[in-house]
Write a structure and sequence with these properties.
By secondary structure, the chain is an alpha+beta fold. The protein has helices at about 5-15, 25-30, 35-45, 50-70, 75-80, 85-95, 100-105, 155-170, 240-255, and strands at about 130-140, 140-145, 150, 175-180, 180-190, 195-205, 215-220, 225-230, 260-265, 270-275, 285-295. Helix 5 packs across helix 6 (about 85-95).
Length: about 300
Amino acid sequence: MLKPYDLLENILLDIERGIKNNINASILSKKYDYSESHLRRIFNFAFKQSIASYIRSRRLAASLNNLLKTDSNVLEIAVEYGFDYEQTYIRAFRREFGITPGDLRKTGQIVKIKPPLHIFDGNRLDDGVVFGPDIVMVPQFHIIGKLHRIPFDNFNDMVPKAGRQFWENERKQIKRQINPNVYIGLTRNMNFEENNFDYMPSVQVENLKNIPQGFSGDTFGASMCARFRYIGQHYYFDINKNIVSMMYGVIRKFALNEQAKYVMLNEKYHFEMMDTRLYEKPSCLIEFYTPVSEK
C-alpha cells in the first residue's frame, strides 16, 4: 500500500496522463485498492476541491491547445477530451472560462486556467503528508472534556492514551454534543520553564451549563487561524512524537517565514480536529488549527 505522499503524487500524475482517456475516481480507486468514496475524501481533504471538478478543469485546460492551435471543430475536441456531447463541453467550458469555445476563437480573449497540482517535498513525512496553511476564521465554540497536565517529555505516551481513553469511554457521559463524531484536542498553557502543558481531549457542546463531575469546559473564542491538514498512514490515536515533530517542522517553516503576512500564536493555544467518520484503514485525516494575527 502506497504511503499518502506517494499515493497523491501518483494520482496527480495519472490524471495528467489520462486526460484523454476518461480518467476518473473509479478507475483510480481500483488501481490503488481504495474505496472510491475514501479516495474522493482524501483528495478533497488534501486539495480542498473535488477530484471530479479538478479532472474536469484539467481536461478543459488541455483542450485549449486543440481549440486555439488547430482547425478541429468543437465536437471533435469535446469527444477527444472525454465529453460525450458538444453541448456538455460548451456548458462546462463557459462555466470554467466565462466564454464559449467559439467566442474564444473569435475574440482571442485571455483566460485563466487551472494548472496541474503539485506536492512539495517539504510537506512529506515518513508516513504522512502535511498541507497548508489556509488562513481561516474559526467561530467561537464550546467544548467539554478531560483536562490533563502533561510533561513535554511524556507527550508520546500520555496524549494518545488520554485521547483514546476519552474517545472510547469518557465522552459518553457528556450531554448535548454537537458533531459527536468529531474529536477536538485543545492545547493551552504551554509552560516551557516547567516543561509541561494542558491538554484536553473533548467534544463540542451547545453550552457549558452541564459539565459532568470530573470534566472541564472551555471556550475557544472566535479567532483567525492557520489551518494545516495532515494525512497519515495509521489510526488516529496511534500518532506519535516522531510524527508530530516532523509535522511541526513544516508548521515552523511557516511560523519563521519572514515574508509571511501572519504571525502564529501557537504557544498560547491550538487544537486538532478529527472527524472519525472520515477514517478508513490505512489513512487518517487530521486538521490542526493555530491562531494567527496579521503582522
